[in-house]
Structure formats: C-alpha cells, structure tokens
C-alpha cells in the first residue's frame, strides 16, 4: 500500500491542536517519542501514516503503526505514547471522530445482507486492523478537500460517510456497528461509562449501575470487563486519578483539596494510588505539569 500522498497531506495540514477545517477530522504530527501519558481515548478511528503508537487499556496493550488503524467505540481512560517519532521522521496520523447517530443512520440505510452477522456479547471497545486500500483512498480524498475549500461543505460529509461505511463493513465492523445500535451490549456499557464519568467522585454500588444499564449484575460485570478491560471500580479509579492530574496542573499547591474533590477521603491513599499510576507523588508531578497541562482531545491520533 502506497501511503505517500497520505503522508504528504497530513504533513501539510497538521496543526498544534490537531484540528482541521473539516468538522470531526483530526491530523496529528509528533516529532519526539515521549513517555506514556494518561488521557481519554475519545470515540474515534485513528489511522497512522508514519511512525507507531502503543496504547494500554486496563491490562490490554494495543500497538498500531503505518498502514494500520485503531477504532475506539467508547471514551475510555488509556495510557499511550508514540514509540517511533523523530524530528526528521515525525509520527503522523489521521483521526475521525465517530458519532453514534451517524452510525445508526448508515445501519438503517443498509440493505438486508449487506452487513456481516452480529456476534454475541459485547466486543472490546478498542481494536486494531490493517487499513484496506479502499479506506486509505477515502481518507486521502477527504484530506484533499482541505486544499479545495469550495468543495468541502458538499463533499466532506459524503466522504466521511464512505469512511464510516468502510469501517462498518470492515474487519472491525462489529466494534463500530454496536456504537449505533440502541439496544447493543456496547451501548448499555457506554451508558454506564458515562454515568461513572459524570459521578466519578461519589461511591456507587455495582448493582445500581447494572440496573441503570438494564443488565443483571453478572452480565453487566462481564460485558463491562470485555469492553473496557477493567472492572467498574477500576474504571472509576482511573477517571478519578486522571481528573486529579488535570486539577493539579492548575492547582499544584492544593494536593489534599484535589484528592478530596475527586473522591478520596484519605490523603495517604490518594498519594499512594496517584504515585502508582503516574510514577511520582502528586506534588512532584504537579510541579512537572506546570505550563504543560494534559490535553482533552482524543488521544489515539
């Protein structure tokens, strides 16, 4: 597969904030391999044109490199970094934010037999595959529109739908299709994920969140683990610690207060779990974060 034109387009249109003039389309350029850092994945498809990246989700590790794409169908706490990036050969990638409503619309328009049969249970919320030529071609045509502003408003939505269709019918289609199915296991788990993210600072009973998701406790726990590679309590802890890190970037002198705001009653427990997660105690990490607060954009691109 020739990725030459894709690399050229990405290099030309990369911005520091990764955004482009096309809504939902991201372009990244990273010139140095950095230590792993925590972030939220976003619901996104990320295609690498040069370089390589490693993502850890719970106890799972995903690696993708030039010519491969990763799909995340749930916004999850991850740790990741580019493993191949240098000023003379930067890592460059394309991202497309995935919206459940658009996936649902395409699924409704598909003719009977156009889609592979659905599997049982919830697929993992993240998957990696080699990018087929048709998918890369569609991405290239979409990026060309950045040089053709007159055509962008009309053609960009059409090509984004084509890319999404390639994903829905591709090797990882099950992961993407469940994003648009109102009654899919992944949709139920995504509802629980949103609830935990919105209420991360308060304790909860797994039984209550399972009921909110419309599942038995055993089915909820099994599907939550399949999608996120974490238990619900582990997921909550990841969100608490990431939120604490964001707060410490702007309030470096209030470690105890930050710990309490994200749900820790014990300062020693907060410090212990923070150090285990980020490799340094809160006060030391806060000093390191000054002037370089963690970003909130999808972290897979």
Summary keywords:
301 residues; alpha+beta; Jelly Rolls; five-stranded antiparallel beta sheet; four-stranded antiparallel beta sheet; 9 strands; 46% helix; 18% strand; globular
Proportion of residues in extended strands: 15-25%
Overall pLDDT level: 90
CATH fold assignment of the domain at 4-180: Jelly Rolls
Give the spatial strand order of the biggest sheet. 1-8-3-6-9
SSE arrangement, N to C = HEEEEEEEEHEHHHHHHHHHH
Radius of gyration: 20 Å
Helix content: 40-55%
- Tell me the name of the CATH class of the domain at 4-180: Mainly Beta
Shape: globular
State the CATH superfamily name of the domain at 4-180: Jelly Rolls
Q: What composes the largest sheet?
A: 5 strands, antiparallel
Low-confidence stretches: none
Q: Count of helices? A: 12
CATH architecture descriptor of the domain at 4-180: Sandwich
Question: Can you describe this structure in just a few lines?
Answer:
By secondary structure, this protein is an alpha+beta fold. It has helices at residues 4-13, 100-109, 133-144, 149-168, 173-177, 185-198, 206-213, 217-228, 232-250, 255-261, 267-278, 282-289; strands at 25-30, 37-40, 44-50, 52-57, 60-65, 68-72, 77-84, 91-97, 126-130. It holds the Pfam family AraC_N.
What this model shows, in words?
It is a single chain. This protein has 301 residues and is α+β, with helices and mostly antiparallel strands. It has a domain at 4-180: Jelly Rolls (Sandwich), CATH 2.60.120. The chain has twelve helices and nine strands. It has a five-stranded antiparallel sheet, covered by helices on one side. It has a four-stranded antiparallel sheet with strand order 2-7-4-5. A hairpin with a 2-residue loop joins strand 4 and strand 5 (60-65). Helix 2 (100-109) crosses helix 4 (149-168) and helix 6 crosses helix 7. The model has no long low-confidence stretch (mean pLDDT 90).
